[in-house]
Design a protein that fits this description.
About 35% of the residues lie in helices and about 25% in strands. The protein has 16 helices and 20 strands. With about 500 residues, it is an alpha+beta fold. The strands form three sheets. Strands 4, 5, 6, 12, 13, 14, 15, 16, 17 and 18 form a ten-stranded mixed sheet that branches. Strands 1, 2, 8, 9, 10, 11, 19 and 20 form an eight-stranded mixed sheet that branches.
Length: about 500
């Protein structure tokens, strides 16, 4: 069977591949692209709206982006950088709405205040000091702090009903936060790609990758139905297969993947669709992580809007499975171990006893114990109103470290071959929210010959590209206002008004 040749091969039908494919189609419409998805539809793993909390990660409420050092100091640069990256994503989405690529903004993004809620005198002091640092940063303009129960009740009544009056509490709130349905966003982007000539092939598993003498890649695949094997040749390959990316990059044989390992963490959420409860909460409320807990396990009580229907989620409750994907294999973890990553993985195990202890505790926790965690946020929570749903698998990156042998890295990691002909994404949150800046960086690195010609179009898609909004208050205000208007984020929310009253 003759091997078809294309310009770009995308592996995995999630938000990353959909973003990169859309970007390339905007920059170079005549390039041929094929997209492989192992399952029968796109966005069924980490990009699925029920497999994540849908937070537009902008570091407005997530405390892990601004930890307190041993001496009590706090450094805002990481939080600011995460926010800057999310603004790039917002601008890109706004441009695609204006170009008609994306449907009405309400189909994938909705205004949702972001809050942080803490308990205990030390945490109240920490949150106040964090607010003092961030309130003067342009991208955090409008962030509010309160330790007054009456004010917090106005912001989020469910946090306060039946709470002990003498409990030390505090909260911050900023109304420019968002809830993002990455599943809907992925589907819309893939629909655009298919309508513009992209060859989309579902239920097709990538079995191997081999580099050719001319620098291109031959990708071997097999169809689930019929089991027909065949190959496709591509000048560039992107591995956006979520938890499956590590295995595929290992099969590619590129030296850049040596030393990388993966640690899978599964999770569950409590979910309620009870309209009486949902109507009383219009926010994403983040707390402080337990000792040893990974950042992705920071507890939060979230408004979710999926297919126009509002629900509440609480969690996540961390668990363990050796699978790298929800639909993966029990042999994913042991099958990923190589001589080159065994040392880093053992070093991570040695240095992360608190994480192991935390995971064991989570695995052994009963439903009543899980409800206790929910009631720390919502004292009136009743078991009958909440059901546990299984969230997506996350594979945290483990990699070599010259000092410690190996480190467990939270966040995302792009692995690219030296010649830029293949790249893949490893890791977890805040990946989806920062997909656009990640893909822009990837394009510049992997397509140096075309980058100069593409820059004007990239600037059209992301007007602030190349600048730091937080360093220019006027530019930050203009960008926030313009994207809010296009994405319909300035509309009043009747439920929020009703709650406050």
């Amino acid at each position: 069977m003759s091997t078809k040749s294309v310009d770009v091969i995308l592996i995995g039908g999630g938000i990353m591949s959909a973003t990169l494919g859309t970007m390339i189609k905007q920059l170079q419409p005549d390039w041929s692209i094929v997209l492989f998805e192992r399952l029968n539809d796109v966005a069924l793993e980490s990009s699925n709206p029920w497999n994540n909390a849908g937070t537009g990660h902008a570091a407005l409420a997530e405390l892990n982006y601004m930890p307190e050092a041993a001496d009590g100091t706090m450094e805002p640069s990481k939080a600011i950088n995460i926010n800057e990256q999310f603004q790039v994503s917002r601008q890109f989405w706004a441009s695609l709405v204006e170009f008609g690529v994306l449907d009405a903004p309400t189909t994938f993004i909705n205004p949702t205040p972001h809050m942080t809620f803490v308990r205990g005198a030390d945490n109240v002091d920490y949150l106040r000091r964090r607010w003092e640092i961030l309130k003067d940063e342009p991208l955090f303009e409008g962030i509010e702090f309160s330790d007054d129960p009456r004010q917090i009740y106005k912001w989020a009544p469910l946090l306060m009903r039946h709470r002990q009056k003498d409990e030390k509490i505090a909260a911050t709130r900023i109304t420019s936060g968002t809830d993002v349905d990455f599943g809907s966003l992925t589907h819309q982007l893939v629909d655009y790609l298919r309508a513009n000539g992209v060859d989309y092939r579902s239920e097709t598993t990538v079995k191997g990758l081999k580099k050719q003498k001319d620098g291109s890649w031959t990708v071997r695949v097999r169809e689930r139905i019929g089991g027909t094997p065949y190959s496709i040749n591509g000048k560039f390959v992107f591995v956006g297969a979520g938890g499956g990316a590590l295995s595929l990059l290992q099969k590619s044989g590129i030296p850049e993947i040596k030393g990388f390992g993966g640690f899978p963490i599964s999770g569950k959420f409590f979910r309620t669709d009870n309209p009486e409860i949902v109507a009383q909460h219009q926010a994403k409320v983040y707390g402080k992580a337990s000792v040893g807990a990974p950042p992705m396990s920071v507890p939060h009580l979230d408004t979710r809007v999926v297919d126009g229907q509002a629900s509440l989620l609480f969690g996540p409750y961390a668990g363990f499975s050796p699978k790298f994907l929800k639909s993966g294999s029990w042999f994913d973890l042991p099958g990923s171990i190589r001589l080159h990553n065994l040392g880093p993985m053992l070093a991570v195990a040695r240095d992360n006893f608190d994480l192991v202890k935390y995971l064991v505790g989570e695995l052994l926790a009963s439903r009543s114990k899980k409800l206790e965690a929910l009631r720390e946020f919502m004292p009136t929570a009743q078991s009958k109103d909440w059901r546990l749903i299984t969230a997506g698998q996350r594979v945290q990156v483990m990699k070599k470290d010259p000092k410690r042998g190996g480190v467990l890295q939270f966040g995302t990691e792009v692995v690219t071959s030296a010649d830029g002909t293949i790249a893949g994404l490893l890791g977890a949150s805040p990946g989806a929210s920062t997909a656009v800046p990640i893909m822009i960086d990837l394009i510049r690195k992997c397509f140096p010959a075309e980058s100069a010609a593409w820059e004007p179009k990239l600037k059209q898609l992301v007007p602030s590209l190349g600048t730091k909004l937080n360093a220019d208050p006027a530019a930050a205000e203009q960008s926030l206002d313009e994207t809010a208007k296009v994405l319909d984020l300035t509309r009043s929310d009747e439920r929020a008004v009703a709650t406050a009253s």
